[in-house]
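Box 4.2: Ligand-aware structure prediction
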Amino acid sequence: MSVRAVLGCLFGDEAKAKIVDVLAVDTDVVIRFQGGSNAGHTINFNNEKFVMHLIPSGIFHKNQICALASGVVIDPFQLEKEINALQAKGVSFSDRFFVDERAALVLPIHKVLDERNEQLSGDNKIGTTKRGIGPCYSDVINRIGLRICDLYNKETLKTKIDYLYKFHNIKSNIAELNVLMDDLFNFADKMSKYVVNLPYCLNKWLEEDKKILFEGAQGTLLDIYFGTYPFVTSSHTLSGGIAAYTGCSPKKIDEFIGVYKSYISRVGSGPFPTELNNEIGEKIRIQGNEFGSTTGRPRRCGWFDIVAAKYTAMINGIDSIALTLLDVLSGFDTLKICIAYKVNNKMTEEFPSQVSVLDIVEPVYMELPGWKENISLCTKYEELPENAQNYVKTVERLMGITVKIISVGPDRKQTIFI
Ligand code: IMP
């Protein structure tokens, strides 16, 4: 397969970055297609841990091309910071890092608006990462957003920024705006060598038969249309977003790899049918170190949910599964998997579209025997305890999709290929 996509299929934080990093060995180009610095992509190797928010997770393979497509919303100062930090570690960007000139800019005003919207929402707040993501995508849809290419037109940049402040009814401070303009011009100069008309590069890479991997951020249940709206992020996180956000025809994508955590976690507000508000949930949180890599917030944890998982596999067209964080489930007497929902005493296997229904569904569980062994050093499927194998096979059977990768720890080496 020469064109693949790695997609988070739950509420994000499924350890996609690790899977992208592992698969990047056999890839020429990694393209991030949506989201912004709300994402926290963690990669561990050689006893070092790297957390990136914008840079594609293929960057540590020195021969790979990495690109940010038009659907990514770019906080210029975060991007610069990440590039500088990685360069200081010896990672080279020249001739292999590209940014689409269409990508929208996340500006300080977007963070102010994000904070303001959350405050206005009171008890209904979404629990955003406050990285300005929603306001930035809204400006794009409103056709008033600023894009990377605007940085190279000094005459109009100021007018466009002034208009943003006017549109959002936020008082601008002239001195602060002048500093912002200077910083943006500075950023534009440094970035100019990376900025391209990406669809042309991408389609040339396709013609050259390069192996391409699309990297998703967040997860399908946070998709702006198909997630648990309004408790979602503001982009298309599902496979359909790839074509719209990159300029790659959907006909060209050969394989969709769905990344599923072995249990479920969610950060921020919104429905979560299998959430465990008890000591089991707490144990999963501690064992899985389930604290947000962008905001540090404790993540809500719960049992694996086949209803939600089958829904996201269906709308993404998932071909194979990467089942991650299986090691976190060690040490439980029994494990549960939700196989259906009961809504007003009626059983359903359909994932409801409305939060008001999701809030009242009762999960119907099957129970499986747990295992006590530490599995984080297993490198082959056969080395896993019988009950862990049984857990994987049960997920596979219920999903009707092959599990091809199992992750048993954060390091690259802690990966089992089946
Ligand atoms: P926003 O994307 O910052 O607007 O946040 C919207 C919702 O998506 C909130 O519930 C966030 O916690 C959640 N969210 C955003 N990015 C991520 C992520 O990378 N992992 C998990 N949750 C995320």
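In the box above, the bound molecule is inosinic acid. The chain has a mean pLDDT of 96.
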